[in-house]
Amino acid sequence: MLTVDKIEVRQGPFDVTKAGALGGSINVVTKKPHKGFHGEILGKGGSYDFWSSGFYVTGGNNKVQGLIGYNYSESDQYEDGEGNKLYSFAPGGRPYYAEGKDMKAFEKQDVWGKLQLTPTENQTILLSHTYGDAEDIMAPRVAWDIESEKTNLTSAEYLITELGNCSDRLTLSIYRNKIEHNPYDKYRELVGDPPFHRHNDVESTITGGKIENKQSTNFAAFTYGIDMYKRNWKGDMYRDDTGAIFDDELIPDVDTYDYGVYVKADKAFDKWSLGAGLRYDRFETEANETLKQSSAVTSTNKNTDDLPSGYLSARYYVTDNSHIFGGIGRSIRTPTSVERYLQSPSPFFHGNPDLDPTKNTEFDIGFEMTGERYSLKVKGFYSDLDDYIYQQGKKTAASHQTWTNIDAHLYGADVKAIIDIVSDLSLEAAASYQRGRKDSQPDENNDKDLAQIPPLKTRLALHYDHSDFFGTLEWIHLEEADDIDIDAGETRLSGWNVVNLRAGYRYKQHLTLNIGIENIFDEHYAVANSYEWDVVGGSGATPAQQFPL
Question: Quick check: 278 pLDDT over 80?
Fold first, then answer.
């Protein structure tokens, strides 16, 4: 976490400043350069020969500040609660060679730098670049591992404040992110078809920009802006023995364009705090290569979607320390390039160019209160999903394995309470529950339960924090997973209980030592179901292969 300053989580469809925030948004804020000179050195070690080490330093004067950092991490193969290593979860058609059984789980290194210029008190220019290089990443659930994955993340931001009545804060930003992803099956035995080794070259590049202005008026505080991005995603599959292309349209050179405009307003008066937002996106996708598999069911290779979204929210303060909150919103999730245009080597496994974006209409309501020694938050939601994007399995010789649109709904609730027992000791309790049901069915699927919905989860934690020493002892419980989509390949999972311990010591504000034990009693459990396919090989997920710990 050397790069991360904070993580902002916004639940529900109440953020119009970002495209595609269907059920919420997560904003990872990275550390910025500072004047003076300081830094941090971090070293971590753990089970299965996991270790990670890195550093960052930052410094500068009032006009120029810089930051540079580096981190390296690696690990041997993890084991589940019964001692099974990662390699044992490989599918039957592609088990590991002896060399693969002894390989590391991953190796990864990252380097990043930032330059911040402050020409005047109200102007800031921030330039940043991050490079990541990961090698030999095990992916035993599917038939491929990752030979290498390279990431280049570049951005520039210009911020100017106090421009007068029309602008409190104006931000102009641009970015370009490129990922090179290279799966291969070098360490797998050729038990099933095809009878030769393969590798993929997959590349995704996204370039975009944003102009945003914040303005305070006597009526309300406004935020408005425009944003756009272009994404290209392409991938080909090759034979290792001859070097020939085995599938030159795996991801058929797909261009995606999104043009968005938004405005939101926030107003507080008396005991009320109100919010409203509107957004409009024009979303265009096109496959620039022949859709050799999906052309059997549709001639579509280009799509344009006009997507309005927005929200209304309110908060009423019952007392100075308690309030009721609620809101209704509509948000959009657009299909990915894989979901619309994937062309696998199999004529019966491909994307669906006719997919519509998912529309989420959600209502949230809750209550929150705080006291000198306690806090409590309770929230419930109901979500209606139109054109929810869902996988459609191949159940007959003539059917196609693809993605489709269905209608569905979700509902749930969560609660969290914290009580200070004594000055340095506090107790935290939390629970969350949700349920998903289909209102229409994919072909060859009659199960009404929605896939990938976790069962009831509870957490009880004891926190201690006294000057130099701190620690947390937590118990996590997950109910049995039985509201599952059996027709999509999910299976019932037993409930489980896990106890974790984390503790630390701070020495004179310059050194912090952390230790932790996850799953103290070595319980054997499966975290979650998954029906996600291997989009390279077209295989369905075997839920029993979800890594038990």
Answer: yes
Give domain status of residue 443, yes or no: no
Range of the domain at 57: 4-190+205-396
- CATH number of the domain encompassing residue 155: 2.40.170.20
pLDDT tens string 59-75: 999 999 999 999 999 99
3-class state of residue 270 by DSSP: coil
Distance CA 278, CA 251 (A): 33
Integer Cα distance of 168 and 171 in angstroms: 10
Alpha-carbon gap, residue 357 to 197, rounded angstroms: 36
Residue 437 maps to a domain: no
pLDDT in tens, 447-493: 999 999 999 999 999 999 998 999 999 999 999 999 999 998 888 99
Quick one: which of 211, 78, 81 has its CA closest to 140? 78
The Cα-based distances of 73 to 101, 110, 207, 210, 526 in angstroms read: 20, 9, 29, 34, 25
Contact residues for 184 (Cβ-Cβ < 8 A; gap 6+): 144, 145, 146, 147, 197, 198, 199, 200, 240
Residue 524 pLDDT > 60, yes or no?
Answer: yes
Number of domains in the chain: 1
Which helix or strand (DSSP H or E) is residue 133 part of?
strand 123-137
Where do the H-state alpha helices sit in 295-420? 337-341
Q: Residue 61's beta-bridge partner residues?
A: none
Is the distance from CB of 450 to CB of 437 less than 8 angstroms? Answer: yes
CA–chain centroid gap for 163, Å, is 36
Q: What is the pLDDT of residues 190-225, one digit of tens each?
A: 887 888 999 999 999 999 999 999 999 999 999 999
How many residues belong to the chain? Answer: 549
pTM above 0.85, yes or no: yes
Report CA 508 to chain centroid distance, whole Å. 36
Please answer whether residues 470 and 501 qualify as being in contact, where contact means their C-beta atoms are separated by less than 8 angstroms.
Answer: no
Average pLDDT, the chain: 92
Closest CA to 182 of 234, 147, 137: 147
Query: Helix (H) and strand (E) counts for the chain?
Result: 2, 23
Task: Decide if 401 is inside a domain.
Answer: no
CB atoms within 10 A of CB 116: 21
Cα distances (Å, whole numbers) of residue 199 to 187, 236, 241, 316 = 11, 9, 10, 57
* Residue 35 per-residue DSSP state: S
The reply to whether 122 falls in a domain is: yes
